[in-house]
Amino acid sequence: MNDASPSTSMAGQAEALALRYGKDAMPEAGPWNAVIGSMMTHRSVRGYKPDALPPHTLETIMAAAQSAATSSNLQTWSVVAISDPVVRAELAKIANNQKHITECPLFLCFLADVSRNERLGAAEKKTLEGLPYLETFLVAAIDAALAAQNAVVAAESLGLSTVYIGAMRNDVKRTAELLGLPSGAVCVFGLCVGYAKPGSENEVKPRLAQSAVLFHDKYTAAGDDGHRAAYDAELTRYSKRFEMSQYTWTERVLNRLGPLKSLNGRDKLKAALEALGFPLR
Ligand SMILES: Cc1cc2nc3c(=O)[nH]c(=O)nc-3n(C[C@H](O)[C@H](O)[C@H](O)COP(=O)(O)O)c2cc1C
User: Fold this and answer.
1) pLDDT at position 8, please?
2) In angstroms, rounded to a whole number, what is the distance separating the alpha carbons of residues 158 and 141?
3) Which end of the chain is more exposed for a tag (fewer CB within 10 A), N or C?
């Protein structure tokens, strides 16, 4: 982490909070340090230089990922790092031709993976009765997400950029074939890692105000309309700068969750997961 970065100083704190929430919705400034400063500057990057990563960056990123909490220490996740350009190209096709998948120097497929535990059970000649349940799949998917986010924080602290690729779930069966996955393992998302191409660095994307997502003692939807209007205005300012097609958050939510076709085949995910060894009982 670069300690001279403005986001590690108190002035940097105000600047970082303003970028994340907009000047009108900044929360009160609390404790601050370089780790938080780095996290606050996160943005997804969709264009990468071909430059290789320093030696053993993958091992460092994995050590950070494996340091995440894991439910009951079951460690029900794995990663497949994809170097083969042919496989990369096939994965990019599954993800609607997202070019950063073939472009980035490191592409990681994060798996929800109960197969290792299943093999342990078989070796010990024990039936793992809890394995076929939705709960166990959820544990594995949560574990994978926590590990991946640690990987992202580690990568960004090293000056690298990332973007998650949820579009790997457009076709989990084909992805599993390409990666040679055993039954009980599924790619829940990919992760591009590398150095941002000039012009692709992006800016911090504002989020909903904290009062929209943080409740004290009891949930309330009472403020929804006001929060939405304010956030629509904030995201419009951001989107216009990047000439994005959908300006408001309202438009984004309606487009993403409105038509079923926006799920890009993921409406069949339950059946596909069952076929990959997750009965989801
Ligand atoms: C699980 C997950 C899957 C995602 N999948 C994709 C994807 O397939 N393609 C993409 O360009 N961005 C993807 N993203 C990135 C989000 O679009 C991005 O995080 C969001 O717009 C907020 O922007 P920011 O990360 O720059 O703050 C994904 C993010 C998450 C958490």
Assistant:
1) 60
2) 26
3) C
Q: How far is the CA of 8 from the centre of ligand 1 (A)?
A: 25
Q: Give me the percent of the chain exceeding a pLDDT of 70.
A: 96
User: pTM for this structure?
Assistant: 0.96
The count of other CB atoms within 10 Å of the CB of residue 192 is 26
**Does residue 27 contact residue 210 with C-beta atoms inside 8 Å?**
yes
Question: What CA–CA distance (Å, rounded) separates 9 from 195?
Answer: 24
Which token pair is 15? 């600047």
Give the burial string for 95-116 (b: 16+ CB within 10 Å, else e).
beebebbbbbbbbbbbbbbbbb
**Ligand 1 atom at minimal distance to the Cα of residue 100:** 11
Contact 139, 234 (CB under 8 A): no
